[in-house]
What does this fold into?
Amino acid sequence: MSVQCPHALLSYERVFDRWSTRNLWAGQSTLLGKVVYVAQAGDNSLQGDFGEAWLEAVAAGCGLLHGPSTTLDRQKTDVHLVLEGLWHGTYNPAVNVQVKTTVALREQNGYFAYDLNIATYDVLRRDNESVRRVLVVIGLPKDEERVILHADGTLLVGRGAWVSLEGQSASGNTDTQVIRLPVTNTLDRSGLERMLTTYGVRSSTPVPDMDAWRQS
It folds into this structure.
């Protein structure tokens, strides 16, 4: 049995004095002598919000620390994940995750395919971030319920994978770059732990051989 979940309305209001009629535009409404402007978020915003919450719910269920990376989304990062404890010589491995949510996720030959915008691709392929980044893509059903009630609990519908784009070459495309995510990079306990112990631990920085005492 599925649960009917009406879409939440994400909106903001800007209230102007009733005399500021020169700023009116289509879709306005009036309330108590004030002009109220309401901008409603589209389905893409709601879909993205669900995807981020989906990943955080999974992370919480797997015993990971999780939360938004910063107060403002200015770094192409949505969720910060931490694996508590000492792993491969590093305490509390952490990564920053960019989450993309789609109803058009394609699967072929052991990979998911996703069209990532170039601006995000260029950020995620950097290899000099202090906290390394990972891309997570979550596929959702297009016209079906995304929250389903079962006898033993509530199911958040969705499937996807993760991949690191660190060190990838620049794209010759202007709009999007097709990203292939291995299906084996699962969004469960084992998959997320592998993500964090691979990209969240400290790595050595190559240093050229030199004798400081012989430098003039």
